[in-house]
Amino acid sequence: MSETVSNARGVLYIISCAASSATLVPNLVKQAQAAGWEVCVITTPQGTKFLDIPLLERLTGYPVRSEYKRPEEPDVLPRADALVVFPATFNTINKWALGISDTLALGLLCEFTGLKMSIVTVPCFRTGGGLDGHPAFFRSLQMLREYGVCVLYEPETYPPKNQIPPQVILEVLDETIQEHAQKRNRAEMDSY
Prior knowledge:
By secondary structure, this protein is α/β, with parallel strands linked by helices. 39% of the residues lie in helices and 15% in strands. The chain contains six helices and five strands, in the order E-H-E-H-E-H-H-E-H-E-H. It has a five-stranded parallel beta sheet with strand order 2-1-3-4-5, with helices on both faces. Helix 3 packs across helix 5.
């Protein structure tokens, strides 16, 4: 049975990648639901090994998706109003920034980035492990920011893996949604 509160805020997709921080996703789901979001979880194919899928399906009332559906199959998830990518891996960040869409998770990220939807991403991997020093990583973060994605990368504040607390992620998501709404309103005003 779903533990969702109400659909007052809309539908939030949490996209989770193959990282040890994925064990924190159920807490993010619960806090998002408490804030009024209807939550669905999508993961990368490798991310399935890091999540408690039965638990997440009980919490959300939806299947955890990791693969594309066939065209004749019905959509089992409602359309997202916003996305949080937690934990985001080095691989996903770099592929997403380049527009590579070889998994369901990346396909959704590319699609929703193109639609200028509210997206918050939280890269989570060990500080000083080498990946955080690779030039492609910082180039990709900059590209995502230029695309309108909110990147929460503060490893000095949240060492050693940038595991930002759910409350902070959701507060930043609210700010991101407000900023996107203001930009849309300005664009509509300019079109008159």
